[in-house]
Write a structure and sequence with these properties.
8 helices, alpha+beta, elongated, Glutaredoxin, four-stranded mixed β-sheet
């Protein structure tokens, strides 16, 4: 990550200057600005807050909200809750991974999609379900999945 990219979080570091207890909001706002928390960003935050890198990594790796790698432009969530599982969510996941040539939980090489398997999307009556960003797609089949992905 370039120094010019890291300058994007100077406003965050200034806002919380001298407040070590504000590490989580610092990390949240930094990730929001940068997209993810690179090694360089963590080092930069450490240097500007006097919080040890090891402590920052401890927080970043404990909470699932933080990312250490870039994510795709679109977040694709595949529901694996009970209703979706019974309605063959594993086949939906398989169709997504095959179409995007990606492993579970991964990001496509072109940074277009990041895939997440989630416990529930709250759309049980539409099972099986996936979401791309904030758009829900239900009553899926492997064929429908491929058609949907082709539109993106």
């Amino acid at each position: 990550m370039a120094e010019s990219d890291l300058a994007k979080i100077d406003f965050v570091l200034e806002e919380y200057k001298g407040r070590k207890a504000a590490l989580i909001p610092i990390l949240q706002k930094s990730q929001e600005s940068l997209g993810y928390l690179s090694k360089e960003a963590i080092k930069y935050i450490s240097e500007h807050t006097d919080i040890p890198i090891s402590e920052i990594y401890g927080v970043v790796t404990f909470y699932t909200q933080f990312r250490l790698h870039p994510i795709g432009k679109h977040i694709l969530r595949i529901c694996h809750g009970t209703a979706c599982h019974v309605a063959d969510a594993p086949k939906i996941s398989e169709a997504v991974y095959e179409a995007l040539k990606i492993e579970p939980g991964g990001t496509t090489e072109d940074l277009k999609f990041t895939i997440e398997e989630v416990a529930c999307l709250g759309c049980c009556s539409l099972a099986p379900v996936m979401m791309i960003d904030d758009k829900t797609f239900g009553r899926l089949t492997p064929t429908k999945v491929k058609e949907i992905l082709a539109k993106y």
